[in-house]
Write a structure and sequence with these properties.
alpha+beta, four-stranded antiparallel beta sheet, 10 helices, binds adenosine-5'-diphosphate
């Protein structure tokens, strides 16, 4: 079974917290113990010295005797601290000896200290050790104090309770940090996994065809932001494509219905003998078929121009040279209609799909010819503007009504329906032109004045839109 991102993240946080607490506890235990043991050893030395100093004071130099009762008090007190005191005089005779005083208590004390110490240092190899200190009075040695204890160091009950408190604190800190890590982990993983789950949900909705699906939630995490933006972009483009497909199908059937219906009724009339199939009628039918053919051809061109990798045949060529060639081909058509055509501009080299750019110029010049009456004038100009080339087709024709200007690049849009029927346009020329220009990462704009003329300006990057 696959684990969810959320539980995996929470688990990671908890494990990290446990690891951290473990490492910190180990370090505290290890390094702190070393310091603490040094401290205990120093304390022991100091205590031994204090006991010796006290015993020193119990010697009466005038009578050369020891105050045995006072020595006993010191010894009993020391015994309660785990120290076994033995005091000898100068001749080596015992003045007071804790083992003689209460041997049982001495053994019990030693084993108690051993137990205390081993409970916190299980590897310690300790045992009974003793140290001798000279006893002096007026700078003269008057005897010897032998101090025995569990060595190399031992813990008394205060030390043990101190160490126990440290350990309890560590355990509490460990549990508190673990709880906090789990809580924080759960919160953080929720913050991370929620938008991802939403993206997954949205993506599966989109895959089911619900292209209206969008992710509203914003995330401060860059990658998650990019993910949700990509899913939304995907939904956008799929929705656009779906809309395009739907309208395309509707537009195409609408465009085909009229010529097909007229063709059908003409042919039926001829078959039924209502009309005589004379030359004129057959020619009219032929014209309708040509119209349908042109439309299908234009649709193919549009499909190719709008395809995702429309610009595949990139090459470097002189665009002015290409323009000269196209103008040459148009010369007789312009001459027949009595419209002047000229080209201005310097030679400019660009990287682009030559055939498609040629299609752009042909579409714009043929439109200019179509909508410019006799004695009119059409000019194609090419301008080199550093990173791009500006190609403008200016005519002195009919112009486009301002209300039609925003729509002329749309599929099957014709500004003047009745006149366009005569000119035979399919309303796809400018749509194809725009699709080609945009596939080259360029742009096309139009400016027009009714009965004065129109200017189409195409801006193309010189590097093929890379
Ligand atoms: P069509 O095949 O009908 O010419 P286009 O897409 O090329 O289709 O053009 C769309 C419409 O824009 C045309 O029907 C026409 O009304 C208008 N148009 C295009 N170019 C010009 C122009 N140079 N002068 C006036 N009108 C134009």
């Amino acid at each position: 079974m696959k684990t969810s991102l959320r539980s995996r993240l929470t688990l990671t946080y908890a494990m990290l917290a446990l690891l951290l607490v473990g490492v910190i506890s180990f370090c505290i235990n290890f390094f702190f113990k070393i310091q603490f043991n040094d401290y205990v050893i120093a304390q022991q030395k100091q205590y031994n010295q204090d006991v010796v100093n006290l015993v020193d004071k119990q010697y009466d130099a005038s009578t050369k005797s020891w105050n045995v009762n006072a020595v006993e008090n010191i010894g009993v007190n020391a015994l309660s601290q785990g120290v076994i005191l033995k005091v000898k005089d100068l001749s080596g005779n015992i003045v007071w000896d804790a083992t003689v005083h209460d041997n049982g208590l001495c053994t019990q004390m030693l084993s108690q200290m051993a137990e205390n110490t081993l409970s916190h240092n299980s590897n310690l190899k300790g045992g009974y050790v003793q140290a001798s200190y000279p006893l002096t009075s007026n700078f003269k040695t008057v005897g010897e104090a032998v101090i025995g204890y569990y060595g190399p160091y031992y813990y008394n009950s205060n030390d043990v309770s101190f160490l126990n408190k440290i350990n309890t604190t560590l355990i509490v800190v460990g549990f508190v940090s673990l709880g906090m890590a789990l809580l924080l982990g759960a919160l953080m993983s929720r913050r991370i996994s929620r938008p991802i789950s939403k993206a997954v949900l949205a993506a599966s909705e989109i895959s089911r065809g619900n292209f209206k699906q969008r992710i509203e939630e914003r995330s401060s995490t860059r990658e998650i932001g990019q993910l949700t933006a990509s899913v939304n972009d995907l939904a956008d483009s799929l929705e656009k494509q779906q809309k395009l497909r739907k309208t395309m199908a509707a537009d195409v059937s609408h465009e085909l219905r009229t010529p097909l219906a007229s063709l059908q009724s003409s042919l039926e009339a001829m078959i039924d003998g209502i009309w005589e199939p004379n030359n004129e009628r057959l020619e009219s039918c032929h014209e309708e078929i040509l119209r349908i053919n042109r439309l299908v051809g234009d649709l193919e061109k549009l499909e190719r121009a709008e395809a995702e990798n429309a610009v595949t045949e990139l090459s470097e060529f002189d665009i002015t040279e290409l323009a000269r060639h196209i103008i040459h081909n148009f010369e007789s058509d312009f001459y027949k209609k009595g419209v002047r055509l000229n080209l201005v501009g310097d030679d400019v080299t660009i990287v682009a799909d030559r055939d498609k750019i040629s299609q752009v110029m042909v579409n714009l010049i043929s439109n200019a010819l179509k909508y410019t009456p006799e004695d009119g004038h059409v000019e194609l100009s090419i301008k080199d503007t550093e990173d791009s080339v500006e190609l403008a087709v200016t005519d002195s024709g009919n112009g486009i009504p301002p209300e039609d200007l925003p729509n002329i690049f749309e599929r099957f849009y014709r500004a003047d329906k009745s006149r366009n029927r005569l000119t035979g346009g399919s309303g796809l020329g400018l749509t194809i032109t725009k699709a080609i220009v945009e596939a080259h990462k360029g742009n096309i704009r139009v400016a027009s004045k009714l009965n004065k003329g129109t200017v189409f300006t195409v801006c193309l990057p010189k590097n093929g839109g890379k």
